[in-house]
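Q: Convert this sequence to structure tokens.
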Amino acid sequence: MVRALAPHHRGRVRVGCPGTGPAFPAPEPEAMQNNLMRTDRSARTARSGAESRWGHTGQEAVESGIWRSFTVLTVLLAALAATSLYSYLLFHTIAEFVAIAIAIAVFIVAWNARAMRENGYLLVAGTGLLFVAGIELVHTLAYDGMGIFVGYDANLPTQLWIASRYLLAGTLLAAPLLLRKNPGSRRVFAAFSAVAVLFLLSIFAVPVFPDCYIEGSGLTAFKVWSEYVIAVLLALGAVAVYRVRDAFSPRVAAHLIAAVLVMIASELAFTLYISVYGLSNMIGHLLMVLSFGLIYVAFVETGIRQPYALVFTGLKSSEERLMREKDRLAQYLDIAGTLFVVLDRDGGVALINRRASEVLGCPADAAVGEPGPSGSFPRRNGSVAVRSLRGSRRARSG
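A:
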């Protein structure tokens, strides 16, 4: 319920508060418009200043945490490069396990946030990365020198690598395309399960997957061209993320695009090696770890420290729009010459504008929650009744 005191004549308006009867000049329309423009500009300046102060203080912990993650990632890359000098097989195993662990962590974040359904990208990307991690685990165990898959040569891990890269590129391309679709979690999981099983069957059970590495000759044409195709798919995925970047916080969008670009460089490095223990193979794996580290910062680090920037993106933007509209409404009410008092269902004061607060002689925060027209507002020197509200209403209806 809204009760208002509105001046019916230009000039001076009397408000019938007991014991008072001062006349207040009603604002001219031009002056009121100028006040509105000045107030709106002042509010925007104050709001931007408040946001800047919040960004300076509230974001410090997040920024420091992300920089710590990058520091750890840099040290890890240096340690991996040093490990390759001792044992390339150890280097490869650690690099793959780091990528697998990050992929599983992303899936855990995405799967536990699936009920929110604010952003389909997280669900698709997280579920796809889980199955990429599964194929990469088999690739790691099958790597030349591990001795786990007896009777296979270096072609098997290379085939598994290409299968995992196709699945990864398809995931990062499909995720932004399905961002607004909000697909069901069971359907997404079933779809990726079917694709992963088909890849494994084509390599182990029904060996129709093309050869990717031949001992003594190196990479096959299929493997090299597959890397190029995968790089193109990743580039399309980066473009798709850029087109829907408004659905993410700027930090998340930037890290996702950077991760995809590093993946492209990694795939191109894998087109150059002849030996699975070669330098270009090592560079490709280091770039792969770097790309997964960026994915970790975008999904896991941000998802834990700033969940609204990753999971609740739509809710956060809606809340910000609502707060802006609320602030604008408060500005309009405060500069109006009319006295506004909003009552709740119980007759208590829910909102009072500045003009009414000044006329009635009670602060707005003290008036909120007090009884409405049938009661009184607290005042430093007693209380002021609000009969004027009813009187104004009778005057308008008469």
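The first helix runs from residue 29 to 58.
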